[in-house]
Amino acid sequence: MPMLACAVVCSAMVASCAPAPTAVEKTLTTTTDGSSTRVLPTTPPSGDDSESPDGGTSGAPSSSLDAVPLTPEEAAKEARSTEAPILVTPSPSFPTESPKNEADAETVPPPDNRPAVPLPANPIGFSPLTGRPIGSRDPVLVVKLDNTRNAQPHAGLIHADVVYLEEVEYGITRIAAVFSSNIPKRIGPVRSARITDIDLFAQYGKPAFAYSGAQKKMRPHLAAASVYDVSPYTSNSGYSRDGRRPAPYNLYFDGRSGIQRAQNSTPARDMGFVFDKATPVGGLNATTAAMAWGYGSAGFTYDKAGHEYRISLNGQPARAEEWSGGQRAATVVIQYVKQEKSAFYDKGGGNTPHADTIGTGTAMVMRDGLVWETTWSRPNAKSGTTFTLPDGSLMAFRPGQLWIVLLDKKRTATIKPLTRPKVVPTPSPTPSPTPPSAPPAEGAPQAPSSTDVPTTSASGP
Fold this sequence. Notes:
Layout: E1 8-12, E2 27-30, E3 36-39, H1 72-80, E4 86-90, E5 125-126, E6 133-134, E7 141-145, E8 162-167, E9 173-179, H2 195-202, E10 208-210, H3 219-223, E11 228-229, E12 239-242, E13 251-253, H4 255-261, E14 274-275, E15 284-292, E16 297-303, E17 308-313, E18 316-317, E19 328-329, E20 331-345, E21 351-356, E22 359-367, E23 370-378, E24 386-388, E25 396-397, E26 402-408, E27 414-417
Parallel strand pairs: 7-10, 8-26, 10-11, 14-25, 20-26
Antiparallel strand pairs: 1-4, 2-3, 3-12, 5-6, 7-9, 8-9, 12-13, 15-16, 15-23, 15-27, 16-17, 17-18, 17-19, 20-21, 20-22, 22-23, 23-24
């Protein structure tokens, strides 16, 4: 059986300083702990064409995609930064080697001291995005986040229902976090929108969309997209700069403000996802997974005690502001997509790739230390995405946070060890769920019964 093969060689880039962006006057306030947080001006920004893909620290050409300018003090902080993103390049000499410090970046799980999320007093059913009990179907908020080393630790990300990882210019990645069950007051660092976002978020109906800016050529497309724009272009309400963090990794958003600004945003609805605590049959052992891009990488390591995957990003454990255990995923989906150049370039000539999330393709679904090869299907922009096993039944996710990596099908991920489990899980007897085109069903999403899956290829299509 062919295994996933993606060889990578990691080396650090030499840091260089990007030109300081145009400054605008902003007000500084002092928090109770003595730190300074800058409040954005009341008028929407006119745009900034000097964003570098890694914050001006890697020497890569600058990008023209963020709208919030920096003060001279922030520009100086950015210039003093010497940390560059890790360089990860494919190497055919080692076809089965995982990225260093990725899947094995954290070998000893920390104590689970994450903040508890109280269960609803009167649950109406289960979230169609997480499979967890909910008290109501609340509006959806999507926030774009930076994903370089300088972005760590992320704020609010542990509370997201669904997390997407997408490739942008120069082989770096950005995060799109989908919130509904729990809307954090502090989310960040917030960064700019990309062309892939428009089709990707349409399956959520018309969600609120928070982002820091976009290049001028793409703004008409965002204006016509199926989202409620809660970026600084429409209002700076809810946005602030954290003086403790280097720019441009210091823009944060109050998610509750975003929901108030987009009160008609679509509530969480049936996406075609199904959830079941019972482990489906037919999976292969998969305790680690790793994938790499030009300037970034990601890894997932299974924590048997917590029934979750610990996440590493760009060669480091993915940290969280809220607790010491970092980012975790109950289910990880590696969704292979057709990715091509778009019509959008930055000033340095870097192209923004477009990942096609409409259509069908192969996806590897990881949960409970196992992996299944599935087929993803999304007929049109308004429909959700389903993941089916070879027998046609829907793949059941483990209840909890879902991470979906949109990986160019020309690339491959490394999943190990891909061996048969010694103990075969007992199949769940529950029936198939309501199809995504039907009205949302009240009550728990049900997972289908599964049959054994033939030996699968773990490489991209």
